[in-house]
Amino acid sequence: xxxxxxxxxxxxxxxxxxxxxxxxxxxxxxxxxxxxxxxxxxxxxxxxxxxxxxxxxxxxxxxxxxxxxxxxxxxxxxxxxxxxxxxxxxxxxxxxxxxxxxxxxxxxxxxxxxxxxxxxxxxxxx
Amino acid sequence: xxxxxxxxxxxxxxxxxxxxxxxxxxxxxxxxxxxxxxxxxxxxxxxxxxxxxxxxxxxxxxxxxxxxxxxxxxxxxxxxxxxxxxxxxxxxxxxxxxxxxxxxxxxxxxxxxxxxxxxxxxxxxxxxxxxxxxxxxxxxxxxxxxxxxxxxxxxxxxxxxxxxxxxxxxxxxxxxxxxxxxxxxxxxxxxxxxxxxxxxxxxxxxxxxxxxxxxxxxxxxxxxxxxxxxxxxxxxxxxxxxxxxxxxxxxxxxxxxxxxxxxxxxxxxxxxxxxxxxxxxxxxxxxxxxxxxxxxxxxxxxxxxxxxxxxxxxxxxxxxxxxxxxxxxxxxxx
Lengths: 126, 334
Description:
Chain A: Its main location: membrane. Chain A: Belongs to the CPA3 antiporters (TC 2.A.63) subunit C family. Chain A: InterPro entries: CPA3_antiporter_subunitC, NUOK/Mnh_C1-like. Chain A: Keywords: Cell membrane, Membrane, Transmembrane, Transmembrane helix. Chain A: It is a multi-pass membrane protein. The complex is a heterodimer of chains A (about 130) and B (about 325). Chain A has about 130 residues and is an all-alpha fold. Chain A has five helices and no strands. Chain A has helices spanning about 5-25, 30-50, 60-90, 100-105, 110-120. In chain A, α1 packs antiparallel against α2 (about 30-50) and α2 (about 30-50) runs antiparallel to α3. Chain B is mostly helical and about 325 residues long. Chain B has helices at about 5-25, 30-50, 55-85, 100-125, 130-140, 145-155, 155-175, 200-220, 230-245, 255-280, 290-315. Classes of the chains: A mainly alpha (about 130), B mainly alpha (about 325).
């Protein structure tokens, strides 16, 4: 019989790999944030499971406390990341970084800078 | 559950977690990816239950699946509004530039190597008792019966204090993304809830229960799974629901009352820590007063965590985001 901790630890390791792949391959910034979160929860699972291999009792409370802290900090970082993505999209109208387009032989659309300037000028509160 | 049934359940759960994660990464449609990510969070919470880490399961369900889900769905709808004018030509194609298949394969090999290496490291990890026994031995001196709460608020109070400050720092960083002319506005994510619609009805129906659950989770956290983070997250969700249902406007970021709510927890925590410093150790809680002190800190932290998390999900104050570009900042309909 395989212990739960072993299975979920391996699952966590697989999630880290999967998340890394998504983080590199996906250019959309929001999808990168999703991949970043998947890497994060994979690390938590791996960490928590290695604190649960001892069959005496439940998962190590110190590991649990650190993971709870980690989950909260991950949300804070994700919220800041979403804020950055939205601010970037507001200025450029793009959802991926310009170097991604260059690296992948797709030039930025012409006329974009004009539009972003218009948005700023048109703003009611300005 | 025992034996084969338990292993079968664990295997299925692992498959579901990995499947949902794969879908969240690879599915074409961005909104679909976000939905799979929320489903993924729920499955991971179940995995924590299987590891008997109920405190983590509660946090993951409330934060990882719940609040992150709201944050991401909000981000998708705002992004659509911000980029719709440019993406007309792209509408049919993928939203992001394609990666060459050689680069894809190289990335796959690299990621599989890292994942495999971690798995190998995990399996060959030497057995260790961890800190379980140390916590169990000192639990009586901590003032609470839940070992996780004891670690969070007593044994490793430093971590929790600094974490509450990290949350504040993240909020300040997020707010600093606002442009000058937007400063002092209400943060975004306002919705036009139809009166009598699902949102408006649930916005009235759920908050009393959610409020009760949130406070209960904090109170019970001293003896059973629960605590300031879990309870605070539920309260944040209740507040978000009330704001999204249009029953109450989001507070202005310049509001003094709001700022006090945000710093109440860390201030209280630092205050108790300094009192401990006078008595001997910074953040040291004398056993006789430990429980009331922990509950006091948790009460303050819950308020601050709930307010900070809700505001983090709402995002930076941004003009022309929730109400369209030309409408001024006005009160939502009641």
